């Protein structure tokens, strides 16, 4: 019975990592697609979304059945609860990658408004947060998870910077409004990806320390 218990826990973990791998590939591809205005790659990101959705459903099934079968307690129960929560967070990250892909498809029809500098940097930061949050989950590293939460401020600052620059474009030349709005939307989707990475990091802290920290200022945490 103990062997089956451990094997089923490992299957849940493998399913999360498999889903996370697809999500990270989507983020890699959308970064390339954004930089190169690659419509074909953007379409591939959109097409991959169904497979990621199926992983979320499978993780929920495995975790729910595990709880019903084994009635875990303490750390094992938290592990399964966090697994159930991570599925939707990863799925939302994938959804935002799809949203960016759809904007890339639209933007590829028009001349580029400006050279992209801050936006790829912002996406790189958000992607790193996702990667590190998954790594913190695997290693059960609460300290790393807290560090990821603090990094969200840098992404937020870049979002505001991008927004201000693009607002200036729109004010100075109304003909740029449509293209500027596309870029603002992309920045907003990237900002949400960083938020979802933060949510995963918060769940890692809960997993390790049995301490919910959502809606808590991490810098003021006691």
Describe the structure.
- It is a single chain.
- By secondary structure, the chain is mainly α.
- It has one domain: Phosphate transport system protein phou homolog 2, domain 2 (Methane Monooxygenase Hydroxylase, Chain G, domain 1, Up-down Bundle).
- The chain is 84% helix and 0% strand.
- The protein contains 7 helices and no strands.
- Helix 1 (2-36) runs parallel beside helix 4, helix 2 packs antiparallel against helix 4 (74-107) and helix 5 runs antiparallel to helix 6 (142-172).
- The longest helix is centred in the first third of the chain and has 35 residues, at 2-36.
Largest sheet: none
CATH superfamily label? Phosphate transport system protein phou homolog 2, domain 2
Q: Whole-number radius of gyration?
A: 19 Å
Overall CATH class: Mainly Alpha
Summary keywords:
222 residues, mainly alpha, Methane Monooxygenase Hydroxylase, Chain G, domain 1
